[in-house]
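We give the entry.
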Amino acid sequence: PVHGNLPLTLISRMGGLFSRRGASGSKASETVEYSWDKRERKNPEDMQFSGLSNQTVGKQSGDIGISNQFIIDNCKGCNIYLMDTCSTVTVDECEDCNIYIGPVQTSIFVRNSKRCRLIVACQQFRTRDCEDIDVCIYCQTLPIIESSIKMTFRCFRGAYFALAGQLSAAHLNPYVNYWAKIHDFTPNRDDPNFRCDPEAPSWLEAFWEHSQVAVANVEIDVSAAQCHIPISSAPGTSPSNSSCILILFHNALKAAKKVTRAFFSEATVNWCSAASNLAPSCNTSIHPIVSRQWNSFRHVRARCQQMISSASALKRVCL
C-alpha cells in the first residue's frame, strides 16, 4: 500500500474477480424450468359445467387430470358424467340432476342442492344445506353431512375399464370404504337426516343409459362381479344368515383383487346353491380384514373364530 491506498494493478484484478462476466466471455444464462411449468395448462372454462339446463354432458379419461379442480354449478335437470380423476369437485345449487364423479384425490363438496342422484368415489365427501340427495358412494373417510335432510347413502355401484387405474392414481384403496358410517354435524334424534340402504337403487339402470350419450367411448359394466370396489352391506347388518370371511395379508394387493373378483362371480351362484337348503334367499356378503403385519394373525384368527361360532348357516373361512 502506498499512503494507505491499494495499488491500481491490484484494484483492477479485484474488480475483474467480483464483476459479472461479460456477454462475450460468459455462458448464456439458462432459465430454470420446474415440473409444474411443463404441465399442460387446462382452459378454466373446460373445468366446469355451469348454468346448464336439461342437458347431458360428460368428460372422459384425460379430459380433466388429477391436479385440476372441477366445478358443477347451477345446473337443473342435467345428466353429468366425469369419468376421469381430479383433485377436488364442488357441486353447488344443482337440482334434479344425475351426477357421476370418478375418483377424486381429495374432497367432493355438495352444497345447496336438491333432488339429485349421485355416484361418486373420493377421499372425503361433505354436504351442506342439501335435501333429498341419493348417493352411491365410495369414501375413504367418514362421509359428512351438515344442515342436510332426506339423505340416502348406498355402496358404490358401476365400473368401467379405466376405473382401477384411476383409483390407483388418486391413491384410493378400493377395500377401504366407509359409505355407511355417516357423521352428521346437525343430527335430529326424532327424525334422522339420513339413512343407509345396502340395496341397489331403482334408478341405476336409467342412470347408466344417459352415460352412453355423455361419454360414448366409455362402456359401463353394471355387474357386481366386475366392480373394482367391493359391494358391502351396512355395518351391523347382514343380508342373510350366511357369511364369508376373506383375509388378505401383507403384499397381497394384486392377488387380493383377483380373489375378490373371483369370489363375487362365483359365490352368489355356487355357494348359495349349495346352501339353498339352509338359506334359500342367500345373498353372501364379504367382510374384508386387511392385516399389514404377520404377527397380527392370531388376533385375526381369534376374530374369525368368534364370527364362525355366531354363524347359524353356511360357514366358510378362506386363509
User: Anything to note?
Assistant: The longest helix spans residues 253-274. The CA atoms of residues 149 and 257 lie 36 Å apart.
